[in-house]
Specification:
The protein has about 325 residues and is an alpha/beta fold. The chain has 13 helices and ten strands. The strands form two sheets. The protein has an eight-stranded parallel beta barrel, surrounded by six helices. A two-stranded antiparallel ribbon has the order 9-10.
Length: about 325
């Protein structure tokens, strides 16, 4: 595969490979996101990791310095419903003030924020768990959509349609640039997504073992030891399905849900601060940790650039295999 692939996603973001490193709660720091930029893809600082404006502003400025002029963005994950005290508007205002060029949104309809973002020349990619939401996002004017399948870590939605089906259905129905995610961890899968009609892929879980991810190495070693069967689903009773690493916390939450537990009962197990402590200590058993089935491809701790180089090499092999199948 050439050093640069041309798709609508590479043109839109100004990147070499059609890969976005999606926002990761607590983990998508300036060091990680800038490493993605330097390696030829685009990553996103996760705004929700910063409780106040000042540290988020500092993170954006640090990332800009580290990225060496390469593109990066900010992930804004909005709660499904507006709640009192939500900082979404303030975050978007800060993004505009800092001259960020790319934003990844998710959680709910971003329509109310689009006029100001568009006026600032910001490219918006909206991430959704189903094609019907992607069509709505296209209708309100986002620049690109990312559709994630049931295999993804975090929130795959309620319908649980697999990535391969989502990709092909979305490609036939959408006009704007399309990315697909969920279980994507190899260059061969990147080629497959392009063959299905997507313009690129979103990768999360596969990058969790990158050296630039600050989480404890005990956590990373657990991911390396895991295979594609070692994730599970929680929070379906709240209509907020999450795919997480299979551990004692996930089993406890599932048992509580079977007994009809409400959100207040579940919060001591699923709160974000608990996950942050797990990343700090490496105790992967005591938190609901978002992990997708692409954990199967996480086989070593290495620089993010090395993982992306492997994506390139794997894609070259996949393309060569496809070429060999052509009849004379």
């Amino acid at each position: 595969m050439p050093a640069r692939i041309r798709t609508r996603v590479t043109e839109l973001f100004g990147i070499e490979l059609p890969i976005l490193a999606g926002g990761l709660q607590w983990l998508a720091t300036p060091d990680y996101v800038a490493a993605a930029a330097r390696a030829g893809i685009c990553g996103f600082i996760t705004a929700a990791s910063y409780a106040e404006d000042a540290p988020l502003r500092d993170a954006i400025r640090r990332c800009r310095d580290l990225a060496e002029g390469k593109p990066f963005g900010v992930n804004v994950s909005m709660l499904p419903k507006l709640v009192q005290g939500e900082r979404t508007q303030a975050v978007f205002d800060l993004i505009v003030e800092e001259g960020v060029r790319f934003v990844e949104t998710s959680g709910r309809n971003p329509e109310a924020f689009l006029p100001a973002l568009k006026a600032a020349g910001i490219t918006v990619v909206h991430k959704v768990p189903a094609v019907k939401y992607a069509l709505k996002a296209e209708a309100i004017g986002v620049d690109a959509v990312a559709v994630v399948g049931a295999e993804c870590g975090g929130h795959p939605g309620m319908e649980m349609v697999g990535t391969m089906v989502q990709a092909n259905v979305a490609a036939t129905k959408l006009s704007i640039p399309l990315l697909v995610g969920g279980g994507i961890g190899t260059g061969a899968q990147l080629v497959a997504a392009l063959a299905l009609g997507a313009d690129g892929v979103v990768v999360g879980t596969r990058f969790l073992v990158a050296e630039e991810i600050w989480a404890h190495n005990d956590y990373k070693r657990r991911l390396i030891a895991a295979d594609e069967t070692e994730t599970t689903l929680i929070l379906q009773s709240l209509r907020n399905t999450a795919r997480v690493l299979r551990n004692t916390t996930a089993e406890t939450v599932q048992a509580l849900e079977r007994d009809g537990a409400d959100i207040e009962t579940l919060m001591p197990y699923i709160a974000g601060a608990i996950g942050h402590r797990a990343y700090e200590t490496g105790d992967w058993t005591r938190a609901a940790l978002a992990v997708g089935q692409a954990v199967a491809f996480a086989d070593r701790i290495e620089p993010l650039a090395a993982i992306i180089a492997r994506f390139r090499a794997e894609a070259e092999v996949a393309l060569a295999r496809l070429s060999s199948l052509h009849a004379p």
